[in-house]
């Protein structure tokens, strides 16, 4: 019994500190050190040697460099540098000026916010910053509330990144998946399968498009803003070409890598055999090179470009630190046998009929209280996989989908989430107002997703589960729209 308590101590400390301190990096660090102390029988010298060895093994093990880890880190650094190059170099503002002259109605403005979020898929935080600043003039011109802009921005940032393997989230999540020895598919294939059942992320994106198209749930106040002629013409290519290069090169290099490593003519086999880490790294190098070249031609000085790239490295350093700590605590927990212990308990006490839906709720609570979806991924993906194998191995990928979906939902609604705060501030509204006005739509998507995960848990076909999820979401959205429209009419009558 005492041995089991010691085994669980690092994990418990990590969870408690993450919830109480709301600082994921500190919580992971304490978990790593406490676990190393237990493994080394509380000998400081042995603990130091153990930690040094495990840290080095993340980069070099079994007589060879760990190419996957190195490529993932390189891709994340390059993405961080590219985001700052585009933001600080004027590419985002230039695109905003170009877009301003091409939007002719309020509906186009709202849908434009959504579509721009799909275009700027590179990173959740960058998407919030870029789209919010780009669309502020549109909100002023077409009398859209700041809260609506913030909602549309936030709903097409993190949820979209959770679905795309070629965003900055992809390499991070796939790096965690690669550490799962019982994963039934390659990390890339698993990521795609997990995304297919991410009921929350996909539903949120669909709801945001419907809200934008029909103007549901937000009030509009007339404003007097300058005519579009006072805004410069703008240039869409400074932002558009690097982003398109990243997407096209990521797909092309992945397929090329898979075709080179596979003897089959089947594209699915190419994806299985592809070196996704190297493909992402090379695509990022190409896209960033194009961005630097174009910004230099636009008048950006070489010294300024270097400063921008260092700023990007600084911005991405926190995410890289979390990833490194994630790898470390994963190794420590594996050596302690924590996942196996939890899996054995889960096999005895957890009903397989509630496993997937329960995982969604647990991860949503964790992400909400910590304000971090990435931190929840780091802790729950390995543990969720191990528990799923013990309870019902056929549910591993649905459980991991529930981890991803619950983490995004909790982070999406959290007032301390970086994306929530940045979406609000970049759109010009108060963070509290953004969270409150976004919450009804998030809850609609979450309830529908919870229903979907429970149906999957009960072995209902995914197609039918999706039909029920979307039907539930549409019905709840219609009821919400009817309720808000009635209250708005009453307010208007009272004011008149």
Q: What portion of residues belong to β-strands?
A: under 5%
State the helix count: 23
Shape: globular
> How many separate domains make up the residues?
2
Order of helices and strands: HHHEEHHHHHHHHHHHHHHHHHHHH
Average pLDDT: 82
Low-confidence runs of at least 5 consecutive residues: 222-229, 489-496
Descriptive account of the structure:
The chain has helices spanning 2-21, 24-39, 44-57, 67-88, 91-100, 106-119, 124-141, 146-155, 158-161, 169-178, 187-196, 199-214, 237-261, 267-273, 276-297, 302-336, 338-349, 355-370, 373-392, 396-413, 418-427, 431-457, 462-495, and strands at 60-61, 64-65. Helix 2 (24-39) packs across helix 3 and helix 7 (124-141) runs parallel beside helix 21 (418-427). The model is unreliable at 222-229 and 489-496 (pLDDT under 50). It is built from 23 helices and two strands. Helix content is 79%, strand content 1%. The longest helix has 35 residues, at 302-336. It has two domains: 2-57, no CATH class; 67-495, no CATH class. By secondary structure, it is mostly helical. The protein has a two-stranded antiparallel ribbon with strand order 1-2. A hairpin with a 2-residue loop joins strand 1 and strand 2.
Can you lay out the helices and strands and say which pair or pack?
Layout: H1 2-21, H2 24-39, H3 44-57, E1 60-61, E2 64-65, H4 67-88, H5 91-100, H6 106-119, H7 124-141, H8 146-155, H9 158-161, H10 169-178, H11 187-196, H12 199-214, H13 237-261, H14 267-273, H15 276-297, H16 302-336, H17 338-349, H18 355-370, H19 373-392, H20 396-413, H21 418-427, H22 431-457, H23 462-495
Antiparallel strand pairs: 1-2
Helix pairs in contact: 1-2, 2-3, 2-16, 4-15, 4-16, 5-7, 5-13, 6-7, 6-8, 6-12, 7-8, 7-21, 8-21, 8-22, 10-11, 11-20, 12-22, 13-14, 13-15, 16-19, 17-19, 18-19, 18-20, 18-22, 19-20, 20-22, 21-22, 22-23
